[in-house]
Amino acid sequence: MRLVRSRPSGVPLITVSNHMSTLDDPVMWGFKGFPTSDAKLARWVLAADDICFKNSILTYFFRLGKCIPITRGAGIYQEHMNEALDRLRDGAWLHTFPEGKVCQEDAPIRRLKWGTASLIERAPVTPIVLPIIHNGFEKVMPEKAFYGRRPPFPLCNKDIRIIVGEPIEFDLPKLRVRAMSMSRDSSFPSMGWPSASSHRLDEAARRWLYTTISEQIQTVMESLRGFSTTVFRLQG
């Protein structure tokens, strides 16, 4: 995990992973290779405000843990996405769950939300994007283990396995040019986004671009998930 500790000055890092339980973050960062005692190196993470920020005590706790509140369903231009962009502008490490919600089934990676893709495209410096796939958290904190509810405490003696993939590269200048070309032939209904981006992309171009970036991340994550399934099976 050298990219967490050492990367070019000013270059942000975005890690993306599947989302198996409410314990994924921060427990997954306790595995070997991640810094656990240096607050400056710790990740920022997008967290659902209806779960982590329900009252002032939870808000204080999760804010102290470098969590950024996100309102699910409020779109990619909501207020706190600007805060996430500020952290990327600082060259920080940001973690996202691009599927947008917990999924405990052993199933392919679902279609990704556009939030992560928009952060990659809108960041002043193109982030390094690092995919992570994990397995086992769904057994530690199953969603419907006790009468259709989560257990009051995490379950013990469960295997948690994590695989980190190779960085995903995006040629954003080339993608933006293609997005502008593709937008001329598109007929997306308007969603009321800001009229123009910093790169003069109209809404149709941005929608094509965010879809393309999201699909590339999804493809890499699904490939890594398939690889991890094989590795975990061989390990028993």
Descriptive overview:
This protein has one domain (2-235). Helix content is 38%, strand content 13%. It is built from nine helices and six strands, in the order H-E-H-E-H-H-E-H-E-H-E-H-E-H-H. It has helices at residues 2-5, 24-27, 49-52, 56-64, 79-89, 115-122, 137-140, 172-183, 203-235; strands spanning 13-17, 44-48, 67-70, 93-96, 128-135, 161-164. The chain has a six-stranded mixed β-sheet. The longest helix is centred in the last third of the chain and has 33 residues, at 203-235. It is globular. One of its GO terms (molecular function) is O-acyltransferase activity. This is Tafazzin family protein. Pfam families: Acyltransferase (PF01553).
For the largest beta sheet, what order do the strands appear in spatially?
Answer: 3-2-4-1-5-6
Q: What is the ordering of alpha helices and beta strands?
A: HEHEHHEHEHEHEHH
Query: What is the total number of structural domains?
Result: 1
Helix content: 25-40%
Poorly predicted sequence stretches spanning 5 or more consecutive residues: none
Q: What is the tally of helical segments?
A: 9
Instruction: Report the count of strand segments.
Output: 6
Shape: globular
State the end-to-end CA separation.
25 Å
Strand content: 5-15%
Radius of gyration: 18 Å
What would the average pLDDT be, to the nearest integer? 89
